[in-house]
């Protein structure tokens, strides 16, 4: 009896462990169709990465299946002010973080005229309160203006991680991240998941059994035809290679690996067509490169309302041979679906907009307090995500910027809004120091007047010896951030000390909006 109870308990625990190993959301068989990017550690059949594993460079997210375009493609990272040490940002390690509190912005630009389809950004910080302060602007392909992400959707992925998704399908050349970057650890720019791996492929003919259609989706990007990892048709009229996906996906990007030893020019002029599950054509791409490429990066327009189920690659004309060494197709779930195979529907509480990894409703409100509606403003004294942060006591009446937490009214006993970190006592010492400098300047003015008396030229200018650095606040509107309207950068008024011409007079304080010039004597 005793052993029977122990056996039942053991089986119960084993059953729970097995359920947890599958996350209760995925079928074990599904993971034969996903390539391992868990730093070489994929011991389980369900594809889960070990807890201590770090994704391969260029990969992130659920089971390391999302490609990071910040690492994979040729991107240049610059900061304002300029800083040479920025290696911690793209290293894929969320535990290495920024140690410079002076960062104003980070710009990411793809070189060699590369443009990318933008789906979402993942931002990791060391202080959760800083997440609501972060924003980004982007430059769309064919444009030079910096514009905001239209209709952004925010998703929390734990306390320190947030995804920002642009609902509109756009292709960009660069983006700028700004806000409180003091606690920034990692930024990932999603290129989607390779949904072509080990999917059903067919072609119009096989050169031999060593060059069947399936070799183009075996995960091997070796472009040497002699290594038997490429598809290859006979010479024929309009050869075609078709790929049928296990589910419907929003496809944004396709990468073709051409053969690289000889005859690679054969692929020039290829045509890509995408189809829905009813075999209606969604999009057609015609290769117009003037020269054949070893690797083709093809951006598609990918529409969440028109998911793709089949992809066709062909050459038009007589006496053509189609060779593909690997086809990578990057996409994600269409609106209303989630899970890696995108075969689970979003819950009824958010039927069209749930997290594509977990199925949870995207209900993050920044500067608002009532998810998922997000239409109730923060009460005075609160700010941030779901208004869960308290405004600083240094802010007058504890009122602060609902998104950034800065004192956008006035300071109590502090003189440098919106940050309110320099106290009045310190300011008074600076003021006295300034007065001494002004008096010394007055003596100098008398000597100059005497020296120039004969020429009747009077030059007397007193410049402030020390002053506070002007500060900026990105936008002073408090209650319109979820509407995503543009706000201009406003200088906050700050006291500027001025020295008057009458020698010996007490220095006065002039309030000026332009904080970039010194006050004149």
UniProtKB/TrEMBL annotation:
SMART domains: FTP. Residues 192-336 form the Fucolectin tachylectin-4 pentraxin-1 domain. It comes from the Eukaryota. Gene3D superfamilies: Galactose-binding domain-like. Residues 1-21 form the signal peptide. Coiled coil: none annotated. Keywords: Calcium, Disulfide bond, Lectin, Membrane, Metal-binding, Receptor, Signal, Transmembrane, Transmembrane helix. One of its GO terms (molecular function) is fucose binding. GO terms for biological process: regulation of cellular defense response; regulation of complement activation, lectin pathway. The chain crosses the membrane at residues 170-189, 431-454. Acts as a defensive agent. Recognizes blood group fucosylated oligosaccharides including A, B, H and Lewis B-type antigens. Does not recognize Lewis A antigen and has low affinity for monovalent haptens. Homotrimer. Belongs to the fucolectin family. This is Platelet endothelial aggregation receptor 1. The lineage of its organism: Eukaryota, Metazoa, Spiralia, Lophotrochozoa, Mollusca.
């Amino acid at each position: 009896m005793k052993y029977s109870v122990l056996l039942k308990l053991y089986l119960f625990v084993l059953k729970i462990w097995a359920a947890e190993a599958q996350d209760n959301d995925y079928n074990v068989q599904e993971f034969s169709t996903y390539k391992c990017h868990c730093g070489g550690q994929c011991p389980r059949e369900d594809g889960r990465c070990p807890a201590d594993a770090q994704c391969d460079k260029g990969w992130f997210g659920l089971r390391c299946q999302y490609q990071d375009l910040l690492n994979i493609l040729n991107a240049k990272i610059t900061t304002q002010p300029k800083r040479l040490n920025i290696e911690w940002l793209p290293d894929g390690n969320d535990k290495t973080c920024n140690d410079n509190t002076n960062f104003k912005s980070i710009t990411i630009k793809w070189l060699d005229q590369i443009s990318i389809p933008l789906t979402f950004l993942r931002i990791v910080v060391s202080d959760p309160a800083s997440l609501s302060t972060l924003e980004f602007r982007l430059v769309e392909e064919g444009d030079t203006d910096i514009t905001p992400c239209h209709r952004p959707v925010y998703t929390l992925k734990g306390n320190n991680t947030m995804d920002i998704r642009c609902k509109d399908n756009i292709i960009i050349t660069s983006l700028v991240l700004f806000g409180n970057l003091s606690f920034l650890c990692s930024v990932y720019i999603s290129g989607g998941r390779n949904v072509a791996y080990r999917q059903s492929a067919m072609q119009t003919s096989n050169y031999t059994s060593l060059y069947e259609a399936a070799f183009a989706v075996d995960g091997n990007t070796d472009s040497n035809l002699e290594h038997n990892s490429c598809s290859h048709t006979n010479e024929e009229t309009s050869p075609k290679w078709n790929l049928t996906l296990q589910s419907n996906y929003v496809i944004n990007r396709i990468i073709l690996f051409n053969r690289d030893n000889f005859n690679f020019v054969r692929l020039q002029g290829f045509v890509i067509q995408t189809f829905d599950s009813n075999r209606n054509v969604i999009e057609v791409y015609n290769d117009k490169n003037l020269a054949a490429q070893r690797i083709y990066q093809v951006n598609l327009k990918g529409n969440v309302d028109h998911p793709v189920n089949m992809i066709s690659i062909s050459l038009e004309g007589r006496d053509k041979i189609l060779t593909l060494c690997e086809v990578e197709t990057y996409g994600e779930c269409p609106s209303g679906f989630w899970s890696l195979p995108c075969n689970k529907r979003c819950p009824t509480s958010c039927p069209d907009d749930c997290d594509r990894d977990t199925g949870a409703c995207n209900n993050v409100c920044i500067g608002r307090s009532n998810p998922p509606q997000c239409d109730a403003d923060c009460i005075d004294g609160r700010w941030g995500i779901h208004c869960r942060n308290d405004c600083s006591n240094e802010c007058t009446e504890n009122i602060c910027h609902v998104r950034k937490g800065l004192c956008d009214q006035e300071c109590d006993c502090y003189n440098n809004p919106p940050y309110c970190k320099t106290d009045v006592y310190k300011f008074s010492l600076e003021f006295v120091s300034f007065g001494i400098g002004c008096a010394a300047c007055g003596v100098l003015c008398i000597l100059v007047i005497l020296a120039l008396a004969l020429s009747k030229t009077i030059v007397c200018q007193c410049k402030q010896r020390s002053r506070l650095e002007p500060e900026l606040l990105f936008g002073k509107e408090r209650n319109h951030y979820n509407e995503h309207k543009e706000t201009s950068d406003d200088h906050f008024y700050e006291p500027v000390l001025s020295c008057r011409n009458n020698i010996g007079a007490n220095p006065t304080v002039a309030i000026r909006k332009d904080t970039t010039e010194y006050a004149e004597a």
